[in-house]
């Protein structure tokens, strides 16, 4: 974040990062906020198993992940779940069957920039396991795992590790 030095308003090299969430220009008093981004993660479950994906890009390339992604402008968290599940795995989801479970803060490091996120967790229960059609740009594999076989060290993001730990051991 410290790499940004030039003010987008006046063009001077007077932009200063506060170390947490904003840049301020000492020349023209411009303020640029780096607000928290909304993201969703969906636990697709069938009995004692959950569907995880293997990431095909950084951050966390090769690690396990829950399906999901960033909320787009003018989109609800539930709409994001529907869109992301279809984009990533061609799964059509009934929005009314999504169950909100909770949220956790996270840091998403992308191209040397830390993005603070609020990860919103949902559950989607399915009657039968199914094969997925992967978006290989994002996902290299989809894996059904028994909850008891899940190794949290293989999960890409700290928020998901913490949430899944609670989800598995509170069930």
TrEMBL record:
Keywords (A to Z) from UniProt: Hydrolase, Magnesium, Metal-binding
Keyword match Metal-binding: yes
This protein's record includes keyword Secreted: no
Domain of life: Bacteria
Pfam families hit by this protein: NUDIX (PF00293)
UniProt cross-references to SUPFAM superfamilies, sorted A to Z: Nudix
Cofactor(s), by name: Mg(2+)
Nudix hydrolase domain sequence ranges: 32-167
Name this protein carries in UniProt: NUDIX domain-containing protein
């Amino acid at each position: 974040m410290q790499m940004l030095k030039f003010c987008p308003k006046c063009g001077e090299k007077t932009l200063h990062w506060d170390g947490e969430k904003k840049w301020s220009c000492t020349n023209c008093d411009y303020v640029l906020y780096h607000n928290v981004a909304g993201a969703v993660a969906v636990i697709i479950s069938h009995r004692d198993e959950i569907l995880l994906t293997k990431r095909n890009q950084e951050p966390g390339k090769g690690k396990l992940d829950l399906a999901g992604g960033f909320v787009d402008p003018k989109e609800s968290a539930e709409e994001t779940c529907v869109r992301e599940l279809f984009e990533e795995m061609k799964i059509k989801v009934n929005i009314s069957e999504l169950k909100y479970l909770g949220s956790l803060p996270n840091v998403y490091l992308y191209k040397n920039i830390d993005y603070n996120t609020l990860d919103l967790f949902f559950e989607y229960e399915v009657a039968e396991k199914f094969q997925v059609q992967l978006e290989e740009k994002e996902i290299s594999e989809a894996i059904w795992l028994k909850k008891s076989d899940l190794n949290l060290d293989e999960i890409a993001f700290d928020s998901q590790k913490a949430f899944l730990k609670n989800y598995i051991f509170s069930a």
